[in-house]
Amino acid sequence: MDVTPGTPLTDFPGVGEARAKKLEKLGLTTAGDLLTWYPRDYEDRRKIYTVAEAPPEGRVCVAAMAAEHPRLSRIRKGLELVQVKVVDHTGALHLTFFNQGYIERAIRAGEEYIFYGAVEVQGRRRTMVNPIFERMDKQSFTGRIMPVYRLTAGISNHMLAALVRQALPCAQGIPETLPQHIRQAHSLAAAEFSVKNIHFPEDEKALALARRRLAFEELFYLAVGLHFLKSRRGREGEGFPIPPRPKGDFLALLPFAPTGAQSRVMDEVSADMAGGRPMNRLVQGDVGSGKTVVAAYAGWLCAGTGCQGALMAPTEVLAEQHYKSLSALLAPAGVRVGLLTGSMTAAEKKKTRSALEAGDIDFIVGTHALISEGVAFRRLALIVADEQHRFGVAQRAALAAKGGENAAPHVLVMSATPIPRTLALIIYGDLDVSVIDQLPPGRTPIATYVVREDKRQRMYNFVRKQVAEGRQVYIICPAVEENPDAALPGEESPALNLKAVKTYADKLQREVFPDLRLGILHGKMKPREKEAAMSAFSSGQTQVLVATTVVEVGVDVPNASLIIIENADRFGLSQLHQLRGRVGRGQHPSHCVLITGTRSLEAMERLHTLASTTDGFKISEEDLKARGPGDFFGNRQHGLPQMKLADLAGDMRLLSQAQEAARTLLDQDPRLTRPENRPVWERVRRLFADTPDIFN
Ligand code: ADP
Ligand code: MG
User: Which atom of ligand 1 is nearest to the CA of 287?
Assistant: First the structure.
């Protein structure tokens, strides 16, 4: 077979339609895809043991000769055994293969093989079950460092490795995508060498070289792409100068006095917006620190000069809530607040869009719907992204592009998730950072308790007591629906006994709180139903809200004073902290109960960490330590393209080298128009495929 990167996998021997479908699940359809399907780990199979020396731990390679013809026996329907004895000068090894009848013919008496598997020693008898094997003279998966790939059902590592091996010849002479001078300056291995050695490394050193080059490459393209994203703002040039207004006029609208921190950040925002350059500011403040006020202030300033502002919220629930509170706050000042979400009817959306275009809305609150094609502004001068980690770099850029030809809107990003400084610089570049490091007065810290099942009844009594005092309660469950495989509620296996919103709410209503008004809220409900459930809770109509983590972000019901988190060990620390932040938002002493059946000491320790502090930064640090950066940044919260090899939080040094290289290149050729830089341009474009307009 003559392989090129474009060769479809169906041309590979042994890949039929069914197997091709499975490979497609992994995103693999061509030989080229296989080349960039980097291993997630490696197994060292270089050492080949004699039968007697093979250690009975882990999987090892043993060289031996088949001493007999394999014996096939059918134990019962659906259970076939092949057994064969293999030997060398040190002893005998008894092999058993389950349900692999073909092995009867695949192993021949008198031939020598390498067997790879786990040796078990029972008395003087040595055995191995289901080893991988190959003939001594045709070794390709033994006697070397083997790649370990991410897999899917029906595709074994052996199979995938065999496919990659067949695809590897097309790495021959693949075009070098890193400019020569950059490779030289940073001592990076060549492309072909790196691709070959990332899959089947010659040795540790070759692997390290390959990995370094490929990770560098990813980070380099990332840095170049981000540079394009940022310079877009620069090229759009001037901002809209928004002249300051008397701050007292705004403060008069508030039902409370701002904290010192809020007031300081408001001044920073107003100074930013008054200047000629577009504001680009990140406001970090722990849950409940009152970030919304700052957004309202910016919107109010903006409306004062006849410009428009837009606030993007990550969920519909949150958009609705912001819409309600901002219109209540700003309407008396004549600011016209609008709402645009995906679940509005076509007619409603149309009406809102034309009002935006006509300039009849001053401050629009919405979800991703704001970014969609049909939305045009009359004079968009301000973008606020709430809880930004749910938005990508790309979405913010797309909205910013709606500011029009000549001026770039001011951007205010609000976040409760502290990100390590280095990473923030990469993601946001020249972003200025404000911190709201003070909570509104009168808040009593949320008392947090870790409890076990034996306290469940007392916990329910506590719910009743809170409700009797006029307060409201959240109960958070990790699942929406009951897993059919799960144990029945009350059964001993807590890991399987995840509380599910629907069934649990029913049970609570029937058996525990027949006299209370319960509501439910979860992600699988229709937007209308969610909205109704949320407003029933914020108006106090519902006393207890049984919900999934959809309430995690931003939801604000100051009368809620108790949150119960079921199966608390299932959540990350930062997430628990966010959830806990749903209470303690008013004057009432508030409580958070973490209920768990876990037997893991480590999990208990994590929960106790949460109980002992309310400092969001400290918690996120602990989280990072416990779960590792990979997980922390795993679900693309930052909105950056997925890295295959590089670890954004782990490869900091390599990252700064890649950034430096990107800067050097772009200084010489800012638009990458030189022919020798076209491959870089192509690769960056592919990496940022979700952000097609970053190159305009
Ligand atoms: P977050 O920073 O989590 O977005 P919010 O802006 O939702 O916080 O504010 C949390 C709650 O605190 C809201 O009910 C808000 O009205 C209230 N709040 C904000 N600032 C103050 C203040 N200075 N004094 C009293 N209450 C405040
Ligand atoms: Mg908020």
Answer: 3
Give the whole-angstrom CA distance, residue 410 versus residue 526: 34
| Cα 328 from Cα 321, distance rounded (Å) | 11
CA distance 432 to 561: 35
- Say whether 665 sits in a helix, a strand or coil: helix
Distance between CA atoms of residues 242 and 219, nearest Å? 37
End-to-end CA, the chain = 42
Taking the C-alpha atoms of 33, 35, 37 and 42 in order, what is their torsion angle to the nearest 10 degrees? 160
Span 217-227, pLDDT tens digits: 988 998 888 77
Q: Give, using CA atoms, the residue closest to atom 20 of ligand 1.
A: 290
Interval between CA 494 and ligand 1 midpoint (Å): 37
- Three-state secondary structure call for residue 186: coil
Atom number of ligand 1 nearest to Cα 257? 23
Of how many residues is the chain composed?
Answer: 696
* Domains of the chain, start order: 47-143 (2.40.50.140), 247-436 (3.40.50.300), 446-483+495-613 (3.40.50.300)
**Whole-number Å distance between alpha carbons of 244 and 594:** 46
User: Between 68 and 551, whose confidence is greater?
Assistant: 68
Nearest CA owner, ligand 1 atom 15: 290
β-pairing verdict for 145-148 and 41-44: antiparallel
pLDDT above 60: residue 637: no
Task: Kindly state the helix (H) or strand (E) to which residue 339 belongs, with its residue range.
Answer: strand 337-340
> Distance between CA 32 and CA 25 in Å, rounded?
16
